[in-house]
Amino acid sequence: MSTVTYAGTPVEVDAEGFLEDPAQWNEQVGEQIAAENGIAELTDRHWMVVNYMRDSYLENGTAPSIRTLGKASGVPIKELYSLFPKGPAKLAAKVAGIPKPRGCI
What we know:
Blueprint: E1 2-6, E2 9-13, H1 27-36, H2 44-60, H3 66-72, H4 77-83, H5 88-96
Antiparallel strand pairs: 1-2
């Protein structure tokens, strides 16, 4: 575990850069994480997915799978891959400030 600063906020992250404490997250932190991972700007569609990921995690204690994300977030799986390249569930979880979903490599 190490500490990094996003948007002027020091946060604890694991070895892969996922926030250890989702309560340390805010939208500015999410925007900076996205930028560092190749997403220059978070659109309304990005925020739809990010907010769904956070809400689902905070309600259930786990991040949704890619299949659940595609069905329940309102964003089809094909679009998820264009919004969050190289693994939408994993990258969306990182931007959302929640732990990496189970099953993600």
